[in-house]
Design brief:
heterodimer; A: mainly alpha; MetI-like fold; two-stranded antiparallel sheet; 12 helices; B: alpha/beta; D-Maltodextrin-Binding Protein, domain 2; 2 domains; nine-stranded mixed β-sheet; two-stranded antiparallel ribbon; 20 helices; 13 strands; 15% strand; membrane (chain A); Carbohydrate ABC transporter membrane protein 1 (CUT1 family) (chain A)
Chain lengths: 279, 425
């Protein structure tokens, strides 16, 4: 019997994984990219090849406000929980009671849709808790400025615990001797944070931030439940816009073209992530 | 080691784009194929949003159980919330995952008919004893694609106790009187005078107001949204919004909740409102204080505007379609069933015999509703287009832009019309 070479054996082992990848990732992806070149409706049979017309339509109109909203949401919902998570991780690492870690993790274990509904009631203009507490009548989800802020607050609440745990894990790998040596040399708390903690945490903090940024760039449920992309498109990010175009507007051609543009931007982020991880 | 420089990467990207474009040009159509399955099968599905709504769930389930028990068939039920329903049904129908009977809003029939998967129910329709108006609500493209389950209208409902408390005498008949009544109600603490839709999902409710101000919405195939009357209607709506006579963040479900809590004096709903609100209201006498009223007119002598509304049951061609069609006929035309259904949820039947049943004909609220609202109700002219939902969404999003101060009524409606023109297919 002929023996398999190492290379053939490796391919044999990879075959099931490759087959699954081709069936559930590659084929739908290529199929979706292909659809972007057609005028195709979800409710009508048939389709017409239109070349790059769908992309031209998008770049001449909806793409830019959606990109702006996506960036505002992504930056806000990455930076704020990152800072909050970092502060809490430092506090927990500096002697805050350990059981608080469990308490802070609580928002993270609740499904995103449930969290979103909770905040939907909190922010409701007519019978919401927030207006009740503040004695105001602000339409938090009904005004463009406050709607985006509300969405970012909600996402912050659900994602800061994950960042906190990851950063805390990073802090706990830091040798105590480094801080002790810096103290002996006369460094104060802020100086030790700047010169010892930050350099040590640079790698993990970068990865945590970048991952959160990528996830937020694709985030859907919080925005969809809270505002549905409104008011007047003020919170319409790529995820919501693609969903609306495909499944409410039934316009598969424009939806997949927008998805294609969105994917290109995500690929750029992925390159950053892979480089960061490699370094 | 070989590395990819930027120029190579750009070349690769360009080649990939060309490759995908070439692949696209040769790609086959991926839309669903012909219906499959045994049409005579004794098991079928029934998809209904009413099974997701507390006030109607038990009554609809009783119809399902009653038919399944009598006929010895198996009915598998499925449900989605109303606001997601069309989307879910469209996806499942396209993917061939939906069989049997489906409850549909009359507004959706045109869009789903375009998919070519619904059975023509002309034969059971001819035997059902339906009224002509009801039958027409289930027709699309010259075919009877749905059996009418209920036919009514969407109109204004008032809380008479709140109006009395605010010192509003009589029912406002004109827009000016209506606005004056809203201003009086606004003086009551914690009450929203008119819980009108302000969320995009339900802002299509502004269309009857546009008609009230004199816009036909559609003239032949020309969209008239953006004409002077429709702009005046949106400016008036914005005036109510700024004066807090209507409230932000309101859709049908919020409006029902506010009305049920006695925190809204007026709101728009279908006749089903009485059952839904009564089931939510802490004040058990609220149903008696609810009064349907004709939509105020711009000037005396105008015809009050209301939107025709109703449900039909359609049948997907394929697995179990014969039994599903029989179930649709039973649910919509069996007199005892429709009368009992009316008794439970107050949705008027669509057959002559059903309407003549004492349980229905003796109901004062239904009679009043029919006289004041349904009598002058007309269909939404955009329903004839498969893309009607997108047209409504385009208008709703632009009206919302006006409400939040992002755009003027004139600019917003011009933009909405531009978008809508591309959807008239």
């Amino acid at each position: 019997m002929r023996k398999l070479t190492n290379g053939q054996f490796a391919w044999l082992l990879m075959a099931p994984g490759v087959a699954l990848f081709l069936a559930i990732i590659a084929y739908p992806l290529v199929s979706a990219l292909v659809t972007g070149f057609f005028e195709q409706s979800l409710v009508r049979p048939g389709r017409t090849f239109v070349g790059l017309a769908n992309f031209a339509d998008l770049l001449g109109g909806d793409f830019w406000p959606v990109l702006r909203n996506t960036l505002v949401f992504t930056i806000g919902a990455s930076v704020i929980p990152f800072v909050l998570g970092y502060v809490l991780a430092l506090a927990l690492n500096s002697g805050l009671p350990g059981w608080l870690r469990g308490v802070f993790l609580f928002p993270w274990v609740i499904p995103a849709v449930v969290v979103s509904f909770l905040w939907l009631w909190i922010f409701n203009a007519n019978y919401g808790v927030l207006n009740g507490l503040l004695g105001t009548e602000i339409s938090w989800l009904g005004q463009p400025g406050t709607a985006m802020a509300a969405v970012i607050v909600t996402k912050t609440w659900s994602s800061f615990p994950w960042m906190m745990v990851m950063l805390l894990a990073g802090l706990q790998t830091m040798p105590k001797e480094l801080h002790e040596a810096a103290s002996v040399d006369g460094a104060g708390t802020i100086r030790r944070f700047r010169s010892v903690t930050v350099p040590h945490m640079k790698g993990i903090a970068g990865i945590v931030f970048l991952l959160e940024f990528i996830w937020n760039f694709q985030h859907f449920d919080t925005i969809y439940v809270l505002t549905g992309g409104g008011p007047a498109g003020a919170t319409k990010t790529f995820a919501v816009a693609v969903y609306d175009t495909a499944f409410k507007g039934f316009d598969l051609g424009h939806a997949t073209a927008l998805g294609g543009l969105w994917m290109v931007l995500l690929l750029v982020l992925m390159v950053f992530y892979l480089r960061k991880e490699a370094s | 080691m070989n590395t990819l420089n930027r120029r190579d990467a750009l070349r690769l990207l360009g080649l990939s784009t060309l490759g995908v474009t070439a692949l696209a040009a040769c790609a086959p159509d991926a839309s669903g194929g012909a219906p499959q399955g045994d049409t005579a099968a004794k098991a079928f599905g029934f998809t209904s949003w009413s099974l997701n709504e507390e006030a109607q769930k038990a009554a609809v389930q009783a119809i399902v159980d009653g038919y399944a028990g009598n006929e010895g068939v198996k009915i598998t039920t499925a449900s989605f919330p109303y606001n997601e329903y069309l989307n879910q049904v469209t996806l499942k129908l396209r993917g061939g995952q939906l069989t049997g009977a489906i409850q549909l809003d009359v507004a959706w029939l045109g869009a789903l008919a375009a998919m070519g998967k619904l059975r023509d129910l002309a034969a059971p329709a001819a035997k059902g004893g339906y009224t002509e108006v009801a039958l027409s609500s289930g027709q699309s493209g010259g075919k009877q694609l749905g059996l009418p389950w209920t036919t009514g209208s969407i109109g204004l409902i008032a809380n008479t106790a709140l109006l009395e408390k605010a010192g509003v005498d009589g029912v406002p008949a004109t827009v000016a009187e209506f606005e004056a009544a809203l201003r009086k109600v606004a003086a009551l603490d914690g009450v929203i005078p008119y819980a009108a839709a302000t969320k995009a999902a339900q802002l299509k409710d502004i269309l009857p107001w546009m008609r009230t101000f004199g816009s036909p919405l559609l003239d032949g195939d020309t969209i008239t949204v953006g004409d002077e009357p429709s702009v005046a209607a949106v400016e008036w709506y914005k005036k109510l919004y700024d004066a807090k006579l209507i409230a932000p963040d309101v859709d049908r479900f919020d409006a029902r909740a506010l009305f049920a809590q006695g925190k809204a004096a007026f709101y728009d709903d279908a006749i089903i409102a009485r059952g839904v609100v009564a089931s939510q209201a802490p004040d058990k006498s609220l149903a008696d204080k609810m009064a349907p009223l004709s939509r105020p007119v711009l000037k005396a002598g105008d015809s009050p505007q209301a939107l025709l509304w109703g449900h039909v049951i359609a049948v997907v061609e394929g697995e179990g379609a014969d039994a599903a069609a029989d179930f649709a006929a039973y649910a919509t035309s069996d007199t005892a069933t429709v009368a009992r259904f009316f008794e439970q949820v107050k949705l008027p039947p669509t057959t002559t015999a059903g309407l003549a049943d004492p349980k229905v004909s003796g109901d004062a609220f239904t009679t009043e509703w029919t006289e004041k609202i349904t009598k002058t109700a007309t269909a939404n002219p955009f329903w004839r287009y498969a893309g009607y939902a997108q047209i409504e969404t385009a208008i709703a999003e632009q009206v919302q832009a006006v409400l939040v101060g992002d755009s003027s009524a004139k600019e917003a409606l011009a933009k909405a019309t531009e978008t809508a023109k591309g959807l008239q297919k």
